[in-house]
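Supplementary notes for students who missed Thursday's class. We covered one full example, reproduced here. Read the sequence, then the structure, then the short commentary at the end.
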Amino acid sequence: MFDGYLSKHISAVYEPEALLTYWMNLSILALTTAMLFYHVTRMYSIKTNKNMAAFIAIALLGTGVIYLSTALFNYIPRTDDILEACHHDHHCPDKHLERIATTKKLNVGMSVITISIELVIGYLIFNTIGKY
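Structure (token representation):
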């Protein structure tokens, strides 16, 4: 049965998720750029000091981590506000509340995993400094 709650509040429900997705995309772009730059310098397509290349790649990764961490920091309270509003609205069925809560958990989990992967890659690159 169609209750119309989500259609009436669609922007409030999906806007935080869209914002998080945009920032996650930017974070992945920074990761890709860092990895590509580091690889290109290691293959001598770009002549530069390997330590300098590693620091630039780590800086790009760090920027991506900051982007995504900031987005996550803002996503959680925005989604909590939506959950709270839905909880107090008698027109919001429990199934919508559950769906929003589940989506929040998945998005937070995937963001944390992405940040962790970026940190591990940054650590691996950092360990190459001064070794070659």
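Commentary. The chain has one domain: 5-126. The CA atoms of residues 55 and 126 lie 8 Å apart. If anything here is unclear, bring it to office hours.
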